[in-house]
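seq as requested:
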Amino acid sequence: MVSLSLLNQIVFASLTISSKAQDVYSLFDTQARATLGQLKGALTYPTNGSPGKYGWNTGSSSGWTSGFFPGTLLKLYNHSGDNFMLDNGRRLTEGLADRRHDTTTHDVGFVMYTSFGQLWHLTNDSQAREYLITTADSLSTRFNPIVGCTRSWNSAPPSFEVIAGESRGSRVIIIGNLYFMLTSHPISRTHMLFPSPQIIL
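struct tokens:
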């Protein structure tokens, strides 16, 4: 039998963990607002920081990390229900819309899943869903059925380079494949039947 003392300890530990998690979200919220203040409404995206320098280095929507900050804002909205986070997350996400046609890089999976994927998941936004389907179609052009993987870098044949970063890309293909499941899109099935480290979700 579990003692009342043990139950009290479990409840206290749960409350402590919950309190610490809330502190973390509070810090994230503060930092996200500071970052938005630095961006000043521009459609630029935080990339990295520099030692000894306050604030973020930023880049355009073409960067491989450009979906991360919009996705962070949408996650904060999911936690708090704060429409300020939703509105800014949506605005920065929409700035990435043209990437759905990008066939030049596998990074389009990172960019679109972390931004439009979150938007669709949290708001059931039908346009976000359509953009993900288009992204899946674009990303599928990098898939090689003989290798059974999506090409990472545009290396010259016969090289076919695949890195351990394809899980987001694979998720976008899977989302698209749900839509095309009754047609001829076997890519997701191939990825799932022959899992390798880069696609373990």
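Strands lie at 45-48, 57-59, 143-144, 149-150.
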